[in-house]
Design brief:
The chain has a seven-stranded mixed β-sheet, with helices on both faces. The radius of gyration is 25 Å and the shape is elongated. Strand 1, helix 1 (16-30) and strand 2 form a beta-alpha-beta unit. The protein has ten helices and seven strands. It folds into two domains: 3-227, Alpha-Beta Complex (Spore Coat Polysaccharide Biosynthesis Protein SpsA, Chain A), CATH 3.90.550; 231-296. It has 310 residues and is of the alpha/beta class.
């Protein structure tokens, strides 16, 4: 199969028939073999009934329904495991992404051998309350991740099949799928300017809290990517530096009292700072040691992604 379309949705019953018809026209015009996986993330409207009706008319339509709302990451993760296509393309269900982008997204993966192509909504039809924080968020993500993308959170992306089968998307990590792919060894990541359309139906499902959660998720995924299998390298290094600093301070104060007869050292703030750094250093070192024990006893401690084998 050429393409799997993955479309997570929450309360989008109005847009689904138009979206399915548009995708079908594009697929048939280009002669692609395809499937469309709609993931109903606990919708309260008639979205699931619409998906059932579409599946009866178009045998290429598949549906997955959650009992409750788990979030976009969970919807993508389940659909990635179910996908059969050689190229997987994700798209939002609100008609702000254009299915006319499908041929180029497929070509970049299939012919130009990219691992992942992320859409860039260069011209956006969103209020400034979304566009300005988004620019800041993307700049921070570029700096931390080292991936030169302008729009990490664009829902329109295409993937080589091996990419989606090698990553796990959880929490709210859908914003960082390019970074997940990079940590999994898929470094050929590109970008394509895509059309962004004004919302035709419904309302936005995302609030400003996503920027706070997004930043915390970025720190989490960066730490897990670098130190997930060797936490002692992180906590042990910080703990050792903190312990050494505290030890030096206390040695200095001890010499000041014993050699230079400086009394009242216990009343100096530097004394308490030295004690604090000594204790914090010990705690960080113990934290790293315990994390290392947990990691070494984890069932997937030696799970690595093998690309080829003879």
């Amino acid at each position: 199969m050429d393409i799997t379309m993955v479309i997570p949705l929450f309360n989008e019953d109005e847009s689904l028939p138009e979206l399915e018809a548009w995708i079908r026209r594009v697929m048939e015009a280009n002669g692609y073999s395809y499937e469309i996986i709609f993931v109903d993330d606990g919708s309260k409207d008639n979205s699931w009934q619409v998906i059932e009706n579409l599946a009866r008319v178009n045998p290429c339509v598949r549906g997955i329904k959650f009992r409750r709302n788990y979030g976009k990451s969970a919807a993508l993760n389940v659909a990635f495991h179910a996908a059969l296509g050689n190229v997987v393309i994700t798209m939002d269900a609100d008609l702000q992404d254009s299915p006319d982008e499908i041929p180029d997204l497929y070509r970049l993966i299939h012919e130009e051998k990219y691992d992942l192509i992320s859409g860039w909504k260069q011209k956006r039809y969103d209020p400034i309350s979304k566009t300005l924080p988004s620019k800041f968020f993307n700049a921070i993500t570029r700096w931390i991740s080292g991936i030169a993308l302008h729009d990490f959170n664009c829902g329109l992306k295409s993937y080589r099949r091996e990419v989606v089968k090698s990553i796990e998307v959880y929490g709210e990590m859908h914003r960082y799928i390019p970074l997940l792919a990079k940590w999994a060894g898929f470094s050929n990541i590109g970008e394509k300017v895509v059309e962004h359309r004004a919302r035709k139906y419904g309302i936005s499902k995302f609030g400003l809290e996503r920027f706070v959660n997004g930043f915390l998720d970025l720190l989490s995924i960066t730490f897990m990517g670098k130190f997930g299998k060797r936490p002692m390298h992180f906590f042990g290094t910080l703990g050792t530096l903190s312990f050494i600093l505290g030890f030096i301070i206390l040695v200095y104060l001890s010499i000041a009292k014993l050699v230079y007869q400086q009394y009242g050292i216990a009343d100096r703030p530097l004394f308490y700072f030295g004690i604090l750094t000594l204790i914090v250093g010990t705690q960080l070192f113990v934290t790293g040691f315990l994390a290392e024990l947990v990691t070494r006893n984890a069932p997937d401690r030696n799970h690595y992604l093998v690309e080829k084998e003879l």
